[in-house]
Amino acid sequence: MSFVISTDSGSNMPIELIKENNLVVIPLTYRYDDMDHTTVDLSQFDGDAFYEMIKTKDVTTSTVNLQQFIDAWEPYLEQGIDILHISMSSGISSTYQSSNMAADMIKEDYPDRKIITVDTYAASLAEALNVLDACKYKEEGLTIEEAANKLEKRKSSMRQIFTVDDLMFLKKGGRLSTASAIIGTMLSIKPILVGNEIGQIVLETKERGRKAALKAVLADYVKNVADPAKDIIGIAHSACIKDVQWLIDEIHKINPMQKVITEIYEPVTGSHVGPQTLALFYWKKEPAMA
Question: CA-to-CA distance for 262 and 64, rounded, in angstroms?
Fold first, then answer.
């Protein structure tokens, strides 16, 4: 039975890949100036202006509501097409829980259809890389259950490492403790943060200065990347394209065949990490057996 792949806009998926893979992308909502906004097509998003704006204006975000999932999925279910939904981490958002609730509701009307939801424990292009894996599994002829199982088995190998310019954005959004944010700001350090095994953001190390932080991100990749000749990596940023280009150039000096997707942070996730964030997402080596 055929299935369609669904995700949320927190996956930061470039529009050309959305179209190429016929993805269903359900938009997250952000609000400022007393107006709600959504962004799926990042080619139409003025990231430079947005990340300058949030330095002085508050932006709030909200999860996808249940009806949005139902409205997006129902046309496919009516055609006898199953749904594989690949979600942003439950460690930083309630979107995954909402997708499960929506699936339970709509299954009552379509008892013969399958809706499988996957919590990637990831966000931004780390989530997108899981989506692209799902697309590959579908092209290979795997069933929806087989594709979901492979995603579940592999997702713990996703490395999410990033550096931010101002920890207070993460603190304000509840993604980092107040103590960690204040200490980092007082010391003028550049933090290295990672997504942990349950998809939460944790402070891993601290570097003195932006260049040292970027070099630390690169060194992490060099040490841990699994298969640079085969796998795609993702680099997301919030209006720091020169740093992105530096990182890509350095990676290609080491692994010239490495495929890279780069995209500006979509505004919902981006409003939490703040301006000048640079994030690297890649599949890491499996730990050696004892």
Answer: 25
- Mapping DSSP to helix (H, G, I), strand (E, B) and coil, where does residue 57 land? coil
| Burial class of residue 70 (count of CB atoms within 10 Å of its CB; 0-12, 13-18, 19+) | middle
Widest pairwise Cα distance in the chain: 58
**SS3 sequence of 97-146:** HHHHHHHHHHHCCCCCCCEEEEECCCCHHHHHHHHHHHHHHHHCCCCHHH
pTM of the model: 0.92
Tell which residue, 280, 272, 184, has the closest CA to residue 223: 280
Tokens of 93: 């958002």
Q: Which residues contact 95 (CB under 8 A, 6 or more apart)?
A: 8, 10, 28, 63, 64, 87, 88
Residue 60 CA to residue 172 CA, distance in Å, equals 10
Q: Rounded CA gap, 171 and 38, in Å?
A: 23
- Taking the chain (290 residues) in runs of 10, the rounded mean pLDDT of each run is 93 97 97 94 95 93 92 97 97 94 96 97 98 97 98 96 82 51 58 91 88 96 96 97 98 97 96 94 77
The conformational region for residue 239 under phi > 0 = left, psi -120 to 50 = alpha, else beta, is left
Helices and strands: H and E segment counts in the chain? 11, 13
